[in-house]
Amino acid sequence: MWDHEIKAMASTHAIIAASVFMATVLPAAFVESFSVYGTHLVWIYAVSFVVTVVSVAVFWLLGVTPPTKKHTLGYKLSRLFRCCLYFFLSCLFFHTVVVLYGAPLIESALETFSLAVLLTSLTTLRCLCVLGPNVQAWIRVFSWHGAMSVWDTCLQITVSCTLIGAWFGAFPIPLDWDRPWQVWPISCSLGAVIGFLTGLVVAPTWIHYHRKQLTYKCK
Amino acid sequence: MKVRSSVFASFILIFEVIGVALFLRGFFPVPVKSSVSSKSKLSDLPPEPVTGRSPNSTRVPHPLFEKVVIMLVDALREDFVFGPNGRLYMPYTRHVVERSSSHSFVAKARPPTVTMPRIKALTTGSIPGFIDVVMNLNSPALLEDNLIWQARAAGKRIIFYGDDTWIRLFPKHFVEFDGTTSFFVSDYTEVDNNVTRHRDSTLKRDDWDMLILHYLGLDHIGHISGPHSSLIQPKLLEMDDILKKIHSALISKQTEGALPYLLVLCGDHGMSETGSHGGSSEPEVNTPLVLISPAFRRKEGTLKPDVVEQIDLTPTLALGLGLPISQNSVGRIIPGVFEETSLRDKLRFLHLNGHQLSCLLKDSLPSYEKEPGFEQFRVAEKAHGSWMKLYLEGNTSEVLANMGKKVLKQYLDALNAMSSALGKQLGRYDMYSMIAGMVVVFQLLLLLLLALPEALSGAAAVDVPVLSAVLSLPFYLLCLLFASVHVLVCTSAESSCYFCSLSWGLVFAAVVFSSALFCILISMAMRRLPQEHKTYRKSPLTAPVTEWSLSELDVLLLAGTVGHTLSLAASSFVEEEHQTWYFLISTLCLGVFQDVCRKYFRERIVTGDEEEPVLSSKDRRSGHRKADVHSEKWLALATPPFTLLCCRLLRSLNQTGVQWAHLPDVGHWLNSAEHKVVLSLLAAFCLVLIYFLVQRRCSLVSKVALALGLLGVYSYRAAVDNVSFPWQHSGHATSRGMLEARFVYVFVLGILFTGTKDLLRSQIITADAKLRSRGLWEIYSGLVLLVALLFRAHNLPVLCGSLLIQTLMAQFIWKKLHYDAAQTTIMHYWFGQAFFYFQGNSNNIATIDISVGFVGLESYIEAPAVFLTSLSTYAGPLLWACHLICHLSSEGERSPVSLSHGCYCLALLRSVPAAAYIVLVTVLRYHLFIWSVFSPKLLYESVHLLLTAGVCLFFNTMERGPGSGAPLQCRR
Ligand SMILES: [Zn+2]
Ligand SMILES: [Zn+2]
Asked: Would the pTM count as exceeding 0.80?
């Protein structure tokens, strides 16, 4: 039924996953002594940047984003502006939530904010790409049975995988193993990225195997 | 037999407590002790070994020292003397350590690093069992063989000044004494002046042989403000000055020809970075040990102090004073102390120490002959004998000296090996009792799990097939089997075990109980199998949408409970358990937030979509005005984020755990002297808020009593100088707030009495639900008042926060979102756990605030002290459990069985981790951290289980209210 869409999704995900991989490997050529642990913030920003650029490009090319009603330049600009605003607000939101979860308030604020940026680029950005800056739609997608297309379901899966990954990433922090990856926020960001990659794989697979059961109201 | 599920749950909890008690009895090993409980005697000392000659030379070595002064500074940490700040803190001591004839060591104290076990260790030389901590407060006389007894038996006159624990441990041992009570932790000058005032007069006199001074002030400063406070330096300078005075007095008394004096400076334990002690972290364990005597060689330059065990001091002192080493001593003599004696004496001292250790080894270990240390000692003794033979023959060649050195080394190795073998003996467990306790606990847990679908069904009753089980054949067979196993184990075991020493009647009852449980379990499991589908549908936990789908919140609650139980297997997760709970409740708040969002936002969308609105239509039509609904919606939406914020603020109040415990926290900031005004304002604000949160549902009398009581709480805090009144300028009120505290107690009792009266009236006379809930709420507010009195001033926000969250959640979340009893119970339990840690508790014994046991009491009385301490320690979980009762009984109209369900869930929630933890501890019993991390947690778990059993009983009495006609129906 949606074979075409599933194929598109799988290839999109493959591209994004490859870009994450490149973002982990390539900076070694430019930054001296680059490593995921050692220069963790560089890695976070590399991954965030690459994921942002690649997702925006891919989704724009695919045309998943709901078509705008007006085509004036001013409207498009305001839309772009709203996207940027939402992106920034979402960074602040994640930062707040992470601090409420117990991250130190002042001490490692930069690290916490970097994690928030990473989480935003892995989750909110995708929402922006798929649903546009439309909070109503976001709430719809993230409530029970609110998905209205394959892409919505895919969005649900990847976002929850990323968040669950970051959540599980916090577990090793209290252990007294003194490993380099236990330093805040390395385990959390690693968990988020691993969760994200898992979500990329799981989403098309799950949809493929459940395509018989899936029924969308407005499709 | 059909039993209501709350009754069933309480019964199971009570039996579980018994099972856990049996387990604990087996788990905490009785310390290594000689089987003959007599004292070592000088006449029993072994003769000096000489090969080829009859052992007639029972020469006892001469004492090395004439007078001994022991200056014990409580909580003296190693770095206070030897650290980089040592020169500032204790200049004279440092000078003596570096330039004078002295020996200095870092003495390692064994955990538990609490005063009484340490004193016991220092005097007996043994390693006190863990359970001694619990007995720390009431210390009966020490009956074991010890240094003080030996000294007194040898006619030495001992004088003691300091902590009165010594006087209770050694009654009638001192010719002169003055005890100081250590209970008023806030006093750190009087306790020391009490000791010092006797110093000069005693030192001038000549009628004593041993002087013990135990200074408590430093420990109290540590408890008040930690090791980095500004109070530390003056206190240490004071101690340094005292040492200087004693030393100069001893020097002036020293006469030519007489035996030299010995001055010992030591600490009983250290002080952690937060200023407490009890655990096994480096700063708590490392204490300085400085021995000063003209008998030692003069030192040149600085030396890094060697590391010894604290208990090594005991045999060293004993032999130095010419006394026999006490029987159960595990320590080794410190060779440095005897460096100036002849080689013959040195060997003799080592021989005596070795002989004593080998006797202890023989007594406590069945296979002692296989121990390498024992073997080494035999060899060394032989070599010693042949060395003596040569020596007595007048041989003075270099060969003899070399041979002597070899023997010395052999002895030292043997001592090391034997001492560590004895140390390992401490890890011997009474496995049989442990397994028996474990079996009972597990049977009960399984029963609880098997009965879950029935107990949480609409009827809330469990059908326990007692009769059919007892009348079946397998029951008798099992009885026989268990009894024969018991006889077999008890006759074959070499070591004595507790379960075997029980009387036959008790054992028989246990056997019958266990086999009956087994049969009940099997028959219930059989019954469950065919009708699995039918019962699951009834369970409300799985009810919400369709048969098998759990909502995200259910998944979170279940996963969190299971995950927490599993996390207990890792020592770090036990140490940092608060992190787990904080993490879980943060997630819970977000989960609830999602539920709230879904409820209020989806409604709008769905109603826009001309579909039938799910929950809203009822609310909307029932006469609420639109604005009301609107404001209610925003309040409900704001509650979870507000709770999250509250929890985040509260967790920065007390830094607990191990890894991050030293980080600065708001509590310390508030407690420092310059922020007293802030603390006063905060405390006053919290008390006012507490009043407004609690008074709503009380009767007028209780309202007034509550207000006066809270006023009393503030004046109590002002009296003990935690907070100040605006008109009160210069602090240092020396009053202990007896009057104020008792004033509050009166109101607590009054409120509790009114509440009980209302409850009884509602139960017996009128069956009025309103009266009942008011009575319950009054009891709850009495509890709140008591906790407000017991909490430290900086912890009042915790109480306030818990009340605030309870009120908001009850108002906007639990009722509005229609969470069922099981979900509400789990949430309450989680919050209770988190608040346990918010108050600054941890899984370490050291964080228990024992000073609470003396609020309003002149002296130590066991029962109220234990009650108050456990109440204030478990205030968080208890308050939440009580709120659960109030909340569920007010829900009573909607579903009459919710109390039963809540009680059952609470019992289940408590017994799952307790049972799992018992198994974990058994598996990990040889883990490195078993005594420092896992055992304290085991004690915490068991006490919590006990308290939960109490709460469940209270649930039961609550439920016998209106509606539930015949609670116990005996069918069959
Ligand atoms: Zn102490
Ligand atoms: Zn202390």
From this structure: no
